[in-house]
Amino acid sequence: MELMHAEFDIKPDLVLKVLSLEETELIRQQWIDTFCKNRKGISIKNYKWHIFSTEAYPSVSGSSAEEVYLSQQAPEFIVLSEHHESAIITSELPIECSSSDYYVFPKNLAWTMASTHENGWLGPYFAEHAQYEKLNKINLAGIAKAKAIAEAKSKGWC
């Protein structure tokens, strides 16, 4: 499947950066290296989320996935479309995306949400990194640090 060059939209629309082709490919490969290690016989060429639909990587699906996803926090989130060459970084957890197949995850890949064009039948899927607890603590510490910096700036300390 050929990738499209056009950007895609998310909601809330708080895009911090549109990644270059090179940055997107690096992120895409990191995602594959993290979540697709055990893909023997599973094709991820067209849809990387097949790693979850075939149960080769543990995940929760459907409304359970959405519930867990909406509780996630991180300083920033990456949105990687299956069919676009660019990924985006946002400061808010996306709740909508114009791409039909996409992945949301924090920079450290502590977890991922895979939204599919088959949502409701196959997907969405939520999966945790093997070191989720450790990585999620780092994300929460990053949020606390950002809040402390914002508070200091509001008081004129920085």
UniProtKB/TrEMBL annotation:
Pfam families: DUF4275. This is DUF4275 family protein. It comes from Microbulbifer variabilis.
